[in-house]
Amino acid sequence: MMIANSSIRLVVLFLSCWMPSVIFGENPSTVIPVRSTLKKFMPKLHQEKLREAKIGKIDFVMIGDSITHAWSKYPSLFKGVNLLNLGFPGDRTQNVLWRIENGALDGISPKLVTLMIGTNNMHDSKQAYPADKPEDIFRGIKAILTEVRTRLPKSKILVFSVFPRKAGPENERAKEVNAMLPEISDGKYISHHDLNAYFLNENGQQNKDLYNRDLLHLNDRGYLAWGRALYPLLKKHGLSVNPSVVGKND
Question: pLDDT digit string (tens) for 166-184?
């Protein structure tokens, strides 16, 4: 009898561990918060941003990766706006979730939040991490939006399409994710904006003049183009931007 009871307990334990994954499916890594492993920026930059958030009233938050982080080179672009730049080099969706769980949005109530994330989830397997499936990257973006809405219920959120990359499988993944993004708009707090036309040439291909040699990160002219695209969006929310301060105007 004891052997039979032990066998029953083992079966119950096995089913309790196995059945949820069968019924609901396992969560992809893109939705599981993970601390960034880039020692150059962690934990120093994260801690700096936590302190920065406590200085004055934050009007505007930008969430993203190194492409967003590089706005720090152009501080005079957002004149009269108290911007909290939460762009962190190397960040993937799971790293953004970790930052939010660890205080990145605590104690603030900005008018506007922008989000562009996912390009680091798309790198080929020769990079530090294998590429995630587009649908899993999309799930990661939705998980971030859920966290932002929970912590900043009064803020409007603009989600940008992942910017064009050099032709190849990584750019194809970006296109697949971008095709899903319109689904996240709720008509009230969250909206999707595709700014990619600003980064394409007349043939609909990536405008290499706006990028660094890696054809991933923007150069001065690329940030000028992004600044021009941001102008009407920020103005709509009572924020100002001066794109002429980014490099030389054409």
Answer: 999 999 999 999 999 999 9
Closest residue by Cα to residue 66 from 135, 125, 118: 118
The span from the CA of 159 to the CA of 117, in Å, is 9
Joined together, the tokens standing for residue 235 give 């103005």
pTM exceeds 0.85 for this model:
yes
Edge-to-edge, what's the strand order for the sheet holding 83-87? 83-87, 60-64, 112-116, 156-160, 190-193
**229: which strand partners?**
none
Residue-wise burial string across 154-185, b where 16 or more C-beta atoms lie within 10 A, e elsewhere: ebbbbbbbbbbbeeeebbebbebbbebbeebe
Closest alpha carbon to 210 in 222, 198, 223: 222
Amino acid, single-letter form, for residue 102: N
User: What is the distance between the alpha carbons of residues 72 and 142, in angstroms, rounded to a whole number?
Assistant: 26
Residue 65 CA to residue 120 CA, distance in Å, equals: 8
User: Which residues neighbour 119 within 8 Å (Cβ) at sequence distance 6 or greater?
Assistant: 65, 67, 162, 163, 165, 170, 174, 216
Task: pLDDT band for 89, please (50, 70, 90 cuts).
Answer: very high
Q: What is the mean pLDDT of the chain?
A: 88
What count of Cα atoms within 13 Å lies in the side-chain half-sphere of residue 200? 13
Domains along the chain with CATH numbers: 25-245 (3.40.50.1110)
* DSSP string computed for 64-121: ESHHHHGGGG-GGGSTT--EEEEE-TT--HHHHHHHHHTTTTTT---SEEEEE--GGG
- Can you tell me the distance from the alpha carbon of 116 to that of 160, in angstroms, rounded to the nearest whole number? 5
